[in-house]
Amino acid sequence: MLPGWVWLTGAGPGDPGLLTLHALNALRQAEVIVHDALVAPAILDWANPAATRIDMGKRGGTASPSQRDISLELVELARAGKRVLRLKGGDPFVFGRGGEEAQTLAQHGVPFRIVPGISAGIGGLAYAGIPVTHRDINASLTFVTGHDPKGRAPALDWQAIARGSGVIVIYMGMRNLGEIAGKLIAAGRGGDTPVAIVQSASTPEQRVLETTLARAAAEAEAANIGAPAIVCIGEAALMRQALDWQALATGEPLRNTDPLGLGPAER
C-alpha cells in the first residue's frame, strides 16, 4: 500500500479463510483500518499491530455513523498521508456502498484501489450447500436489497422479478421479509416456492432455515432467525438436501441426492 491511498476491500461473508491474498496484504500494511461491524474479529487479528482501528459499523436500531461521515473520514485520513484500509463485509460493490465511497474519494482527488471480496449472496449460500445457479434450475439470478434508504421494502417491479428470475437472493431483508414475500406471491410466485434463510453465513454461528415463501417470515420469527441473514428464493434452496457439505463433514448422511427428481447428475 502507498501512503495517501485508500484500499476499498471486501472481507468476505465471515469465514477468515475466504479472505483474498490482496486483502491480507492490505491488513498487514495498513496504518489505519476503517472496518464494518460484520468483519470477523479473527480477520482483524491479522492486521498490522500498530494500525489504528476505527469501527464504522452500521447497526440496526442504534446510532451509527452516516455514510457521508465515513466517506469524508477516508478522505481526511488519506490526505494526512496514511495507508488506509476500508474493510467491508462481503464485497464492497455488492450492496456495500463501496461505489459511493469510491466516488467520494475520486471527487476529492484521493487515489484508491478496489479489492473485491466474496459476497454473502454467493459464498454465504455456498456454505449452506446452496448453488445460486444450477443448469436444471435457473438461467437467471436476481440480487435484491431488502430495504431502501429509509428502511422500507424497496419499490421494485416485483412482477417482473417474480416472473423473470429463477432464483432471487435478498440481502438485508429480514425486517421486510413478510412484505416482500407478499409482493412476490401477489405477482404470481407460488406460496410453496422453496426458501432458505442463512443467518451468520460461513461463521461458527451459521444457522439455516428451510421453509417456503408463504411461511418464511412467520417461521423465521418463530425460530429467532434474524440479521445478518441472506435469503434464497427458488428451487436452488432444495439443493441443500444434496449439497449440505458441512453436515456431511460431521458424519450426517445427505437427505436426498436428487431433490429435483431429475435422475443422474452426469446425464
UniProtKB/TrEMBL annotation:
Q: What is this protein called?
A: uroporphyrinogen-III C-methyltransferase
Q: What's the source species for this entry?
A: Sinisalibacter aestuarii
Which PROSITE patterns does this chain map to?
Answer: SUMT_2 (PS00840)
The answer to whether keyword Hydrolase applies is: no
Q: Which CDD domains match?
A: SUMT (cd11642)
UniProt keywords (A-Z) are: Methyltransferase, Porphyrin biosynthesis, S-adenosyl-L-methionine, Transferase
EC number per UniProt:
2.1.1.107
Every Tetrapyrrole methylase domain range: 7-216
Pathway it acts in?
Answer: Porphyrin-containing compound metabolism; siroheme biosynthesis; precorrin-2 from uroporphyrinogen III: step 1/1
Similarity annotation: Belongs to the precorrin methyltransferase family.
Look at the named UniProt entry and state the broad enzyme category this protein falls under.
transferase
Q: Which gene encodes it?
A: cobA
Q: Which domain of life is it from?
A: Bacteria
